Amino acid sequence: MTAIKTTEELFAKIKEVLVAEFALEADAVRPESLLMEDLGLDSIDAVDLIVKLKPYISGKLGPELFKQVRTIQDVVEVIFPLLEQ
Question: Which residue segments constitute the domains of the chain, with CATH numbers given?
């Protein structure tokens, strides 16, 4: 497993997971994509996404971090500071 060093790499990993695990079209996954409205993800899907990204995360992920998350870019901004560097 290669460490993720940039926000671009993190976005690429999130996109990879969403396409592989949630059967989303790659073209639909953009930084501005709304998780619920554009991608059809619900709160359970969001938890599944975080579980898939957990191997890259060294910080503590509390539910309060995700209260304001609406887009893929929001996910990147919440998770990036918690990555193992």
Answer: 7-82 (1.10.1200.10)
Surface-to-core class of residue 3, CB atoms within 10 Å of its CB (0-12 exposed, 13-18 middle, 19+ buried): exposed
Q: What is the pLDDT of residues 2-13, one digit of tens each?
A: 789 999 999 999
Q: How confident is the model at residue 79 (pLDDT cuts 50, 70, 90)?
A: very high
SS3 34: strand
H helices of the chain, where?
Answer: 7-22, 43-53, 72-79
User: Between helices 7-22 and 72-79, what is the axis angle to 10°?
Assistant: 120
The CA distance from 17 to 9, in Å, is 12
Q: Cα 26 from chain centroid?
A: 14
Query: Rounded to the nearest 5°, which phi and psi values hold at 34?
Result: -80, 130
- C-beta neighbour count of 82 within 10 angstroms: 15
